[in-house]
Design goal:
Elements lengths: L5 H4 L6 E2 L2 H4 L7 E2 L3 H9 L13 E3 L2 E3 L7 H9 L3 H9 L5 H7 L3 H4 L12 H14 L15 E5 L3 H13 L2 E5 L8 H5 L7 H13 L3 E3 L10 H7 L2 E4 L19 E3 H15 L13 E5 L3 H13 L3 E5 L26 H10 L4 E2 L2 E8 L5 E13 L6 E5 L5 E4 L2 E4 L8 H7 L23 E3 L2 H4 L4 H20 L5
Parallel strand pairs: 5-6, 5-8, 6-7, 8-18, 9-17, 10-11, 10-17, 11-12
Antiparallel strand pairs: 1-2, 3-4, 13-14, 14-15, 14-16
Length: 494
């Protein structure tokens, strides 16, 4: 859709960003929007391709290609190009509860599958999405819409991350009465405390939760179900329960000296920074400071990059990011064709900032921790690393890492952040409700179902499928809501 010849007339034009050395002075979002005419030109690049892979959302070779929400991307790109922003907003909200979140933190699966990107640069789908939703908020097009009829059914949602919010929002719009229980002091879960403010400013989340409250959703914070809130009472008081507590059990690093002072999980580091920022603009000192410290981050993913950017803003002395896998190619390999997810090296905002400050890329590949070195007081002083080589295991045929003898190095380090992913949900909530876990410590359900082994208890998001993306969590929440609705009403129109 869009202008028929738009992809031939216009080149991809992304939003600019404040220079790294400027933006590290604060924790604010740093992208600068295009003009309205420039945005229309970008929407015009959307091709009338006939088979829009951008909205496909299917697994290819173990990775998602296209939008898991099946967003109607060609339709709202066409409307955006023609200046029909209100209509574009309507089409966008048909499939996505929270475009203001996905347009900021999603890795743009849609763009990686864009037909225009087959032999050219893809359409700026994510930025187009952001322009539509923000136009809606800025112009009063998004206002509380309270259901005219209530079903009389009460639903408890445990967890207020993207899947929990999506389930709550969808069920409330259906007319059910929804109460969300959140163990933290603010609603938002991963969105609030797992993603730094410079990627997603927290007033954006509060804007949405305030809207949901106005529409009838009740939020109860500091409510840690399984500890200070009884699961039995919830089961007694509600007609259905949705467990959406995330995959919040961090993977640890087992190496000599792990008990050294100065080693933290990345999620605790990021959470403390954001909470201090929101509570006191970083004046209370209640955060894990990287100032004047040599920081080593274990993990090369998005969370590791967030730790790099946050450490730079703290004023760290140096920052090093360890990645056990080899560096990906700069361009697609022949065995990784479009529209598969492109397995290419990406330099993200945090790494850009580290390069600007320290003059080099912070990442070291095919490297892991051999030992945490402590000083005489038990505090972390350095890390011993070792290089890895990937060899083929004869039994399984899989490539496995093998340490290279004699490749050890010592890196000065007073603060180490473990960003090695997550191993499933924290079990105490599952135990409180009596739901079964699978071998990956996710809540066990039948295939293509969100129903647990406990009657009227459902699950969604990372707690169900393991660590994944915000956009996929939203889809999980929507799908769980439909299943809950059918359970309660005998049918569903969600």
């Amino acid at each position: 859709m869009g202008k028929a010849t738009g992809f031939l007339e216009f080149t991809r034009n992304e939003t600019s960003a404040r220079e790294p050395l400027e933006r590290i002075r604060d924790f604010n979002e740093f992208h600068i929007p295009l003009t309205e005419e420039q945005r229309r030109e970008q929407a015009a690049r959307c091709m009338d391709c006939g088979v829009p892979f951008c909205q496909n959302g299917k697994m290819l070779c173990g990775m998602i290609s296209g939008c898991p929400l099946n967003n109607l991307i060609p339709e709202w790109n066409d409307l955006l190009y023609h200046g029909q922003k209100e209509q574009a907003l309507g089409r966008l909200l048909m499939t996505n509860n929270f475009p203001e979140f996905t347009s900021r933190v999603c890795p743009a699966l849609c763009e990686k599958a864009c037909t225009c990107g087959f032999n050219d640069s893809p359409v700026t789908v994510r930025e187009n999405e952001k322009s539509i939703i923000e136009y809606g908020f800025e112009n009063g097009l998004i206002a509380p819409s309270i259901p005219k009829v209530r079903s009389g059914k009460k639903i408890a949602v445990i967890g207020s991350g993207p899947s929990g919010l999506a389930a709550a929002d969808t069920l409330n719009k259906r007319g059910h009465s929804v109460t969300v229980f959140e163990r933290s002091d603010r609603a938002g879960g991963l969105l609030m405390y797992g993603i730094p403010n410079m990627k997603l400013e927290k007033h954006i989340i509060e804007r949405r939760t305030d809207l949901m409250e106005a529409e009838g959703v009740e939020f109860i914070t500091n409510a840690n179900v399984g500890e200070n809130v009884s699961a039995d009472e919830i089961l007694k008081d509600f007609d259905a329960v949705v467990l959406a507590c995330g995959s919040s059990n961090p993977r640890d690093i087992k190496a000599e000296g792990r008990d050294a002072q100065g080693i933290y999980f990345a999620v605790d580091f990021l959470r403390a920074t954001t909470k201090s920022l929101l509570d006191s603009d970083m004046t209370d000192g209640k955060f894990i400071s990287a100032k004047d410290k040599n920081v080593v981050i274990i993990g090369g993913g998005d969370t590791g990059n967030d730790c790099v950017g946050t450490s730079v803003r703290h004023g760290c002395k140096s920052v090093t990011q360890l990645e056990m896998m080899p560096k990906l190619p700069d361009e697609r390999a022949e065995n990784n064709p479009w529209p598969e997810w492109p397995k290419v090296c990406k330099t993200d905002y945090g790494q850009e900032e580290a390069i600007a400050v320290f003059g080099h890329d912070p990442r070291i590949y095919t490297t892991t921790v051999k030992e945490f070195i402590k000083d005489e007081k038990g505090a972390l002083s350095a890390i011993k690393t070792i290089k890895l080589d990937f060899v083929t295991d004869e039994a399984s045929g899989r490539r496995i890492p093998k340490e290279i003898d004699g490749s050890e190095e010592i890196i000065p380090c007073e603060l180490c952040l473990i960003a090695a992913g997550f191993l499933g949900c924290q079990s105490y909530v599952a135990e409180a409700f009596g739901v079964e876990l699978d071998g990956r410590t996710n809540v066990k359900t039948a295939v293509n179902s969100h129903a647990t082994n406990v009657p009227k208890v459902f699950t969604a998001g990372d707690m169900h499928i393991g660590q994944s993306l915000v956009v996929r969590a939203i889809r999980e929440g929507r799908d769980a809501a439909a299943e809950v609705d059918k359970y309660l009403m005998g049918y569903t129109n969600i």
